Amino acid sequence: MQCDCVLCLCQIEMAQKLLNSDLAELISKMRLAQQYVLTSLQQDYKKQMLTAAHALAVDAKNLLDVIDQARLKMH
């Protein structure tokens, strides 16, 4: 049981780190999109921002799944 708890915590930490990295990437892409809002590059940066937002959403769902799995293992 102790080993399962450590494994669950490790998985949660890894998912959180990935989520934090994705959030930093989204912030970076949003800044670029704002910087180039009135230029011909606007659409490219907007696509990059939306791609980063999608990755963040997928990894947020993954974190919730990992937490749910850990909760189920505890009971």
From TrEMBL:
Any one GO cellular component localisation term in the record: focal adhesion
One GO term of the biological process aspect: signal complex assembly
Entries under InterPro entries matching the protein: Focal_adhe_kin_target_dom_sf, Focal_adhesion_kin_target_dom
Top-level lineage group: Eukaryota
GO molecular function terms listed in the Swiss-Prot or TrEMBL record: protein tyrosine kinase activity
Focal AT domain: residues covered: 11-74
Pfam families named in the record: Focal_AT
SUPFAM superfamilies linked to this entry: FAT domain of focal adhesion kinase
PANTHER family tied to this protein: FERM AND PDZ DOMAIN-CONTAINING PROTEIN FAMILY MEMBER (PTHR46221), NON-SPECIFIC PROTEIN-TYROSINE KINASE (PTHR46221:SF9)
Protein known as: Focal AT domain-containing protein
